Amino acid sequence: MSNFAMLSILPFLGILFIIWRILRVAKSTSNRFNWSQRLNKWVLYIYVGILLLAAFVYELISANGDEIVAPKEYTMLKTENKVFQQAFENNEESKFDPNFLVEEWTQELEGDTLEIISIGSNFPTERLNIEWTDSKEQLVEVKMYKTHSYMDGINLGEEIPLSKIEIKDKQIILKAPPHKELTYYRFSNELAALSIVDSLDVREQRRVLGYTYIYLKVPKHINVIDKDGLQFY
Amino acid sequence: MFLSNSTLGEVVRTQVKFKMNAYLGTLVSLVFVQLLGLVFSMNGTSSMSTNINNTDIQVVVVSTDTVFIFVAIWALFIGNVITTKGYRNSNLSFVTNSFSNNLSNIIVLIMMSVFAGVTTFLSNNILRTVLPLFNNVDYVKSVSIIDDPLGSIINMGLLICLILMISAGGYLWGTLVYMHKAYMFLLIVLIIATPTTKTGQMILQFIFVDNGSLLFLIVKLIGVSIVLFVLAIVCSNRLEVRR
Amino acid sequence: MDLNSDSTKPIYIRIAEWIENEIIADRFQSDEKVHSQYQLADLFNINPATAAKGLTILVEQQILYKRRGLGMFVALEAKSMILEKRRNETLTQMAMELVLEARRLSVTEEELIQLIKKCEGEQK
Amino acid sequence: MTVIDCQNLKKRYKRMNALEDITFQLEDQKITGLIGRNGAGKTTLLKVLAGFIRESSGDVKVFSNNPYNNLRVSANSILVDDQMSFPDSLTLADILETAPDFYKRWDAELATNLFRYFRLNPKQLHARLSKGNKATFNMIFGLSTRCELTMFDEPTNGMDEAVRSDFYRALLKDYIAHPRTILISSHHLAEMEHLLEDILLIHKGKVVFHQSLEEVKEYAVALQGPTNLVEKMTAGKEILHTKQLDSQRKYVVIRREDLPLIEGVMIYPVSASDVCMYVTDDRKGGIDDVFK
Question: Do B52 and A149 make contact, defined as CB atoms within 8 angstroms?
Answer without folding.
Answer: yes
